Amino acid sequence: xxxxxxxxxxxxxxxxxxxxxxxxxxxxxxxxxxxxxxxxxxxxxxxxxxxxxxxxxxxxxxxxxxxxxxxxxxxxxxxxxxxxxxxxxxxxxxxxxxxxxxxxxxxxxxxxxxxxxxxxxxxxxxxxxxxxxxxxxxxxxxxxxxxxxxxxxxxxxxxxxxxxxxxxxxxxxxxxxxxxxxxxxxxxxxxxxxxxxxxxxxxxxxxxxxxxxxxxxxxxxxxxxxxxxxxxxxxxxxxxxxxxxxxxxxxxxxxxxxxxxxxxxxxxxxxxxxxxxxxxxxxxxxxxxxxxxxxxxxxxxxxxxxxxxxxxxxxxxxxxxxxxxxxxxxxxxxxxxxxxxxxxxxxxxxxxxxxxxxxxxxxxxxxxxxxxxxxxxxxxxxxxxxxxxx
Length: 390
Description:
It is a single chain. By secondary structure, the protein is of the alpha+beta class. It has three domains: about 35-65 and about 315-390, conserved putative lor/sdh protein from methanococcus maripaludis s2 fold; about 70-80 and about 235-310, Elongation Factor Tu (Ef-tu), domain 3 (Beta Barrel); about 90-230, CATH 2.40.50.100. The protein is built from eight helices and 21 strands. The strands form four sheets. Strands 3-12-15-14-13-16 form a six-stranded antiparallel β-barrel. A hairpin with a 2-residue loop joins strand 13 and strand 14 (about 260-275). Helix 4 packs antiparallel against helix 5 (about 155-180).
């Protein structure tokens, strides 16, 4: 073996010994790993004792409290049938005037339009003719009655005269009723005031919601010319799930908001409960009357989101200041160690008398210590650490 080969073998041996002398790194204890992950979790906040004193942090537990249970429901603003009026003519005619416009408030009896029809003249003429025939029939009846009493006239003729009077009276009354229904006074007709026009008037006070005619159009009998709505008796029609219907009672308060209208919740009171399911759904209609309705911007058909106050129930609750809002969700802080707090998402419900209902998304340990005072201080420290990391 040459000296050159011996040197190469010696160098390889030395490198191998050096590699073997290096030890593998010791594994990190599991407890250390867990602690490190907790401290770096974005949902864990760590404090010093001094920071806890500055923040005046107080702890408590989730406890059941008597709160007003709230049932969520959706629905619409509606009007009772007697507060909606569809106006159509009893007799057809050409529209000659429309003295109102859409959106205008009108009183009951206000003229909405006038229509003209020559047939009205014939009806008034018929009234006058019948009235004269009745007068003649009454005179003939008196004559026949006198002859009958003196036993001079025919009994049959007397009875015929009596029948003629009854027929003419009934006919005159029918025509007068027809004229009255169209707004024409029979007294005016008797006074010679013949007209070919009839006024279409408002049967209720309310807003003109729809006008379906214009000047010169021919209004057909039964055709809707106008629609009036009286918004003073708006009420809620809410759909309640079958599982919640047993909690409903007349007189319960309802708080509701309009999805497209900002503002404080409005109030209503349940006055009637449905007695059947809506179609194939497992929902029942609940009717609620608006209280102190002075909001003129409320209109029939508007959608509402409502909460029905369904009486007191024992519900898990915390002081309202225990719950913080962060990135569109609600959270509470639960103490995990002497100086650490973990942030847990919760769902909130009824808020009443300084307490709010909380529903935990995971099961908390028994008697878990929750931050009841200073929760926003804890959140502020968390957000400071987030800014520092960035």
